[in-house]
Design a protein that fits this description.
This protein is an all-alpha fold. The termini are far apart. The chain is built from two helices and no strands. The relative contact order is 0.06.
Length: 62
C-alpha cells in the first residue's frame, strides 16, 4: 500500500500548495495578453522584413 499512501500524500500536498498560489487578476491577464500580441506583431514584422531582404539578395545573386 506504499503506492496508495504516496499518491494520497501527493494529492494532499498539491491541495496545500494550490491554496498558496496567487492567481493573476483580470487586469494582469489583459495587460499580459496585450504585451504578447504587440511583441508577436513586432517579431513578425521584423522577420518578414529580414525574409524580404534575404529574398532580394538571393534574387540579385542568381
Amino acid at each position: 500500500m506504499k503506492i496508495l499512501d504516496g499518491a494520497i500524500r501527493f494529492f494532499r500536498d498539491v491541495h496545500t500548495e494550490m491554496k498558496s498560489v496567487t492567481w493573476p487578476t483580470k487586469d494582469d491577464l489583459k495587460e499580459g495578453t496585450i504585451v504578447v500580441i504587440i511583441m508577436s506583431t513586432i517579431v513578425a514584422l521584423f522577420l518578414s522584413a529580414v525574409d524580404f531582404m534575404f529574398g532580394l539578395a538571393v534574387r540579385s545573386i542568381f
